[in-house]
Structure formats: C-alpha cells, structure tokens
Amino acid sequence: xxxxxxxxxxxxxxxxxxxxxxxxxxxxxxxxxxxxxxxxxxxxxxxxxxxxxxxxxxxxxxxxxxxxxxxxxxxxxxxxxxxxxxxxxxxxxxxxxxxxxxxxxxxxxxxxxxxxxxxxxxxxxxxxxxxxxxxxxxxxxxxxxxxxxxxxxxxxxxxxxxxxxxxxxxxxxxxxxxxxxxxxxxxxxxxxxx
Length: 194
Prior knowledge:
InterPro entries: Aldolase_TIM, DUS-like_FMN-bd. One of its GO terms (molecular function) is tRNA-dihydrouridine47 synthase activity. The protein has 194 residues and is mainly alpha-helical. It has helices at 23-33, 47-54, 65-69, 73-79, 87-105, 109-126, 154-160, 164-175, and strands at residues 6-9, 38-41, 60-62. The protein has 2 domains: 6-79, no CATH class; 87-175, no CATH class. Helix 5 runs antiparallel to helix 6 (109-126) and helix 6 packs across helix 8 (164-175).
C-alpha cells in the first residue's frame, strides 16, 4: 500500500496572485496532518524562500511559477546562492528547450509551430526575471512585477521585454521566421496584449 501524501498551496484560487502564500497556515496544517507527510507550495523564487518554507516543518516543497520565471532556481537552492546568470546562459536554456520541443513534436512546420507556442507562453513568464546584478535588493519577490529596465546587453534587454512582439523575435532567433499572419496572445493575463 502506497503512503498517503498531501500537497498544500498557501493561497486560495480566489486570491489568485493578489496575496502572498500563507506559510503560517501551512505550518499549522503540517502539525494537524502529522504524521502524514505534507508538502508546501507558494511564492518560492529564491533559496531564502525555500529555506523559510522548509522551516515550517513540511516534508518538502513544490515549486511551480518560480520555475517558470527562473528555471535555474533548483541549482540556486541546491547551492544556496544567487546566480547572476548571463543573457547568453539564459539563451542556451531557451535553445535546449527548443531542441527538446523539436525532438518531441518533430522539426516539420507543425512541430516548429507547436514548439514556438510553448516557448512563447514560457517567455511570457520568463520576462519577469530581473538579473541579480541589476536588483536593488535581494531576493526578487515573485509577486512584484519588475519595472522596465535596460539590461547589461541587448539580449538581456530583449529578454526583459513585456511585449509579445519581442518574445516572437526571440522565438525567431531559435526557430526561424514566424509564418505570415502569425499572432500570439498569452493564455494568462500578461502585459503583452498589444
């Protein structure tokens, strides 16, 4: 018989992202659920956030949106450091993503466009990352939308853009030109509706 495992997010669906995850509530639930393992989730975007979450007594943490904004977050948690990842290192991550997409869906027109759609959805989150070297204070908070900023190079500035047209430009760097009349509208409510 498999052991029962619970996962709890510290925010209700109605709150969406308007409130921070309530880790004190999760802590109370850990006590109430004991000895059953309980995993917690919510607002983890740095190794400090992960460390604070683990202090609640959870059996482990789950990371969702934080991994969309910073896929290298798991390395930061493991190594207990902030990674001032360069724009070229970030582009390499995007390049790997497109390679895996083409490997999975194929490199024909349909596979390229399916990969592009998933890449563009991801870029609509990834653009909210602010490089460590540009932050006024560490760590970045997941619920704070970054203001417009100039990156340390053209690519970093392009990756920070909140405009869907710039995400499309990034996709073209990796997957070639978009088809005629191509339109992208993010599924979530981003700032990129124009």
